[in-house]
Amino acid sequence: MKRLCIITALPAETRPLLDALSLQQSNARHLRVYASERFLLLECGPGKMNAAAGTGAMLQAYPDIAAILNVGIAGGCQPIGQSVLAHQVRDHASGARWYPHLPDNNTFRSLPSQNITTIDAPDTHYRQGELFDMEAAGIFTAASRHLSTSQIHCIKVVSDNPEHGIETINKRTVIALIENAMPDINSILDVLHHNFNEEHNAVSVEGDVLISNLLQQIHHTVNDERILRKLIHQHIVKAGEIPRLDTQGKSSAHIRKTLQSSIAAHPVIYE
Amino acid sequence: MDTLYIEDAVANHPRTLTLRSRYPKARIVSIEHYGDVFNAPAQNFKHQKASPALILAKKPGKRVLPTPPGYHIGGENNYYFSHMLNCVYDCRYCFLQGMYQSAHYVVFINSEDFFADMDRTVREHNDDVWFFSGYDCDSLALDPITGFVDECLSFFDSQPQAHLELRTKSTQIRPLLKRAAINNAVVAFSLSPEPIVSAEEHGTPSLSKRLEALKKLQDAGWKIGLRFDPLLYADNFNEIYGAMFDQVFATLNMSDVHSVSLGVFRLPKAFHKKLVRLYPDAKLLNAPIAARDGMMSYPEDVEETMRNFCMQRLQQHIGDHQFFPCT
Ligand code: SF4
User: Chain B residue closest to A103 (CA)?
Assistant: First the structure.
């Protein structure tokens, strides 16, 4: 099972998630990572640079991450405690923008969404239709090199607004805000988990098992592996079954030819 | 439609306001240029296809372009235009999935500029000019939302020197049936055997439904066209294509069909690669496909056998003047 990765910036944002998702500290060099069977959590530290560096390193260390959810606090004009999804993330300094693809789903639909602008220093010029944070653009910069914009999302909880300024934020209030937003965060995580683990269907699992057994038995190059994978998959699709291969003492070229003739022998029938 | 991206330039256009009112619950995201969303890197076509957004934009620059060589149905001066990009259907062989990063639908709101450009193009020629729609989209499928076809037909009704082809697989023919047929428009349906429709043309109306729509249009006096394109390889090719032709000939008055064309499956290499990545289990990939002249296609002899079979069947029912082998 591929895991979802939650990224927070501050210990106070992390703490409620550790309890709610039963996460344990993990051994990852230079990174503050917590893990469970379903989730990874990276606490990247505050600011865009930390966020980009941490996200990049995380994706190197755990290349099979299914999707990323940035969870944190942000300033805006919405009521304090409101959970808001990002439909656009903008780096204020560079002007770069990302558009997370929000799935057509009741859970996602039930939450408001806004532009999230990542700034380099706290700002109190609150604007309608926009939230300020300090990490989202860093996360998108690094994550969009590995994942699609369907797999990178951002949910922020409003921590300050024109009525309750930035000076009212402290460790205790941040913990309380994230704790209260847990039902929203959980439901988003459920949707992402469902969407990004569905693709691993039975055919590819069977094919994967066959290919890993096969590769243990023969000498092969990276290119051989790529071609064999493709041919086995094609065989499963066309013949509707896993190929039966005699690998004893056979070269990868021989197995390739066997697969090719077996595929060619199966007709393409539309019925 | 869950999300509407709206370019600032068309935010207050009356067509935008009408479209917005159809989706009162949609998220509205303001954007500067449709390309910021549509051409952005790191998009997942397959995920977007499952829940596409609508992008409302203004089409700048050239809106009417010359067709590639060979793309014609008998006219000398041939142009195409795309009032929208992408398609509600999901045909496995569709070149749009190779061409675009995104599966979102772009609707160009400034129809008036398209008509002005067509008008200008017509005036540049002394004889008839053909305009093909449905190159980057299906001409009718999203029409209940865009309402483009009705305006387009009114334009062509006033321009006898201009000819229109609407290319579609959709049975959304209400805008055509509700008005009198015009002489300078052809409604061309892409047709495939039913087993291919089910396996490869996801979300499209069945062959029977398309033929039903064609029959209604023909009975109402509209010129119709048949596009057997792309022909797909099958070991039971003669059986399934034969059954399709039987159904076509039994339903339509063939001597009255405006034009018929055939085209064998072909995809640029890069598009084919993307298809393999997106849908490795697509049945059409099991056919003998190889690179030839920069395109992925069937071996020449296979193509010829497929084409010959179809031509033989067609020639029994249509005249040479109706047939355009490869548009
Ligand atoms: S109907 Fe045409 S444009 Fe639409 S998906 Fe199919 S091939 Fe592509």
Answer: B51
Q: Is residue A41 part of a domain?
A: yes
Which residues are B204's β-sheet partners?
Answer: none
The stretches in chain B having pLDDT less than 70 are: 326-327
Residue pair A61/A81 in contact (Cβ under 8 Å)? The answer is no
Do residues A114 and A246 both lie within one domain?
Answer: no
Structural domains of chain B ordered from first start: 56-325 (3.80.30.30)
Q: Is residue A200 part of a domain?
A: no
pLDDT band at A243 (very low <50, low <70, confident <90, very high): confident
Predicted local confidence at residue A35, as pLDDT: 97
Q: Which chain A residue has its CA at the smallest distance from B192's CA?
A: A270
Element containing residue A179 per DSSP (H, E):
helix A171-197
CB–CB contact A266 B286 (8 Å): yes
Polymer length of chain B: 327
Report pLDDT digits (tens) over B111-166.
999 999 999 999 999 999 999 998 899 999 999 999 999 999 999 999 999 999 99
Q: Of B253, B260, B254, whose CA–CA distance to B228 is shortest?
A: B260
Task: Give residue ranges of B with CB < 8 Å to any A CB.
Answer: 2-3, 5, 25, 27, 29, 31, 36-37, 40-44, 47-48, 50-51, 53, 193, 195-196, 199, 232-236, 240, 280-281, 283, 285-288
Is the pLDDT at A53 greater than 70? The verdict is: yes
Claim to verify: residue A45 and residue A63 sit in the same structural domain: yes
What share of chain A in percent tops pLDDT 70? Answer: 97
Same domain? For A98 and A178 the reply is yes
Phi, psi of A99 (to 5 degrees): -120, 95
Domain containing A246: what range? 205-264
Q: Residue B48 has which token pair?
A: 């977007």
- Kindly state whether residues A181 and A254 are assigned to the same domain: no
pTM: 0.92
The answer to whether the CB of B130 falls within 8 A of the CB of B73 is: yes
**A145 and A111 within one domain:** yes
Residue A35 and residue A121 share a domain: yes
pLDDT, residue B327, reads: 45
Report the alpha-carbon distance of residue A98 to residue A192 in Å, rounded: 18
Distance B48 CA to ligand 1 centre (A): 16
Contact between B44 and A88 using a beta-carbon 8 Å cutoff: no
Query: Is there a single domain that holds both residue A219 and residue A182?
Result: no
**Residue of B206, B133, B203, B213 lying closest to B171 (CA atoms):** B213
Report the pLDDT value the prediction gives residue B158, as an integer from 0 to 100.
Answer: 96
At B326 the pLDDT is 67
Whether residues B48 and A150 touch (CB distance < 8 A) is answered with: yes
Last residue of one domain, picked from the residues A195, A225, A244: A195
